Amino acid sequence: MKKNRVLLLYISEHSGHHCASVAIENALRHLEPDIYTMNINSFNYTNPILEKVINRAYMGVVKRTPEIWDYLYDNPKVLKNTQKLREMIHRFNTGKLKTLLDDFRPESIVCTQAFPCGMIADYKKSFGVDIPLIGVLTDYAPHSYWIYNNVDYYIVPSEATGKKLTDNGIDPRKIKDYGIPIDPKFCKGLDRNKICAKFSLDPDVPSVLIMGGTQGLGPIKEMVRLLDRSYLNLQMIVVAGTNKKLYNWLERRQFRKKMVKLSYADNIDELMQISEVIITKPGGITTAEALAKGIPMLIVNPLPGQEAMNTKLLLDEGVAVKAEEPMDVLIILEELLYNEDKLKNMSHRAVSLSKPDSSLNVAKLILGIDK
User: Fold this and answer.
1) What is the distance between the alpha carbons of residues 238 and 247, in angstroms, rounded to a whole number?
2) What are phi and psi of 212, to 5 degrees?
3) Listed residue (241, 277, 231, 283) closest to 261, CA to CA
4) Per DSSP, what are the bridge partners of residue 136?
5) Whole-angstrom distance, CA of residue 218 vs CA of residue 307
6) Is 146 helix (H, G, I), strand (E, B) or coil?
7) Sheet holding 235-239, edge to edge
8) Integer angstrom CA distances of residue 301 from 55, 112, 330, 332
9) What is the span of the domain harbouring residue 12?
10) 251 and 245 in contact (C-beta within 8 Å)?
11) pLDDT at 35 over 70
12) Are 336 and 296 spatial neighbours (Cβ–Cβ below 8 Å)?
């Protein structure tokens, strides 16, 4: 029996794109244990030096001058002016890409970020290659860098996201509204008391989960200080991600309230299970995981571009509230923690919007299994 061979491409190791790629790979192996997969950081594979330069530049912009990123994100003028540059980069990468495809011989290619999706789409066009290509969007707001004729399917987070793609000329038959791929463990109920005991937390005291994505971005220090000095009866779980400075700061300080301090965590499902509210920035993966767990979101300092658009959707759907400044967190959090009906309504609404089977449905599409 011929085994399936699936190539998965993402960019940046510590990113939602990578998390989605891993979730799809795990789902494929769950459905087809003998499957051959290759999961590659495409930018690092094709342009390792350029990857470091661009990542550094991106982080510098979003931290110091976010208004510039807001201008650049999905700007038609920028899209048009960079078209020749993108085509040149794709041509430059052709040699490495051909070697990869010739060696691995994938029967399907899955891209969780627009850069590798465009690279493969152009390769298919240039060389007349007919390998099924699936683009997986990990944010609720699609941008124009996803638009290519040679993409066979688009996995979108919501019907509204799919409509934006069809409005830009994508065939509606290519749109699959499966949601953002997350690990299936997020739809499993867990024992709250056991998890609280594991982290030495009191199950009778509200827990607040504080995160800033995989890179620990946002005013986390300010929020931790405010909550620690506040009169609110709560305990904190703070995940610093790859932000070593933040984690070291947490480790050095003494806090009045009970706190769990973590660096990069692979048990976010457990942390969400025992938390009443998550204070975070609304990255696509974090949002999808929170919806699946039914945990209300308190959004602080969303990045311009995709996260700002994610925020609008979450606010419109009534599953999140937004604090304009760190100081506002106290007021909003007090209202949420002491208004059980509102918390329950937000939680139920979140679950109703969630698509916890997303990664399994993408895997079924890849394998040709009817849902």
Assistant:
1) 9
2) -135, 45
3) 241
4) 155
5) 12
6) helix
7) 259-262, 235-239, 207-211, 277-280, 297-300, 320-323
8) 20, 24, 15, 15
9) 5-182+356-367
10) no
11) yes
12) yes
Specify the pLDDT at position 73: 53
Strands of the 175-176 sheet, one edge to the other: 36-41, 5-10, 108-111, 133-136, 153-155, 175-176
Length of the chain counted residue by residue: 371
Supply angle C-alpha 326, 327, 329, rounded to 5.
70
**For the residues 173-193, what does the mean pLDDT come to?**
92
What tokens were used for 135? 């683009």
Query: Are 336 and 213 within one domain?
Result: yes
Sign, CA dihedral 195-197-199-201, equals positive
270, 260 in Cβ contact below 8 A?
no
Using pLDDT thresholds of 50, 70 and 90, give the confidence band for residue 142: confident
Tokens of 320: 């999140």
Same domain, 313 and 360: no
The token duo for 290 is 């929170």
CATH code at position 86: 3.40.50.2000
Q: How far, in Å, CA of 97 to CA of 42, rounded?
A: 9
What SS3 class is residue 142?
Answer: coil
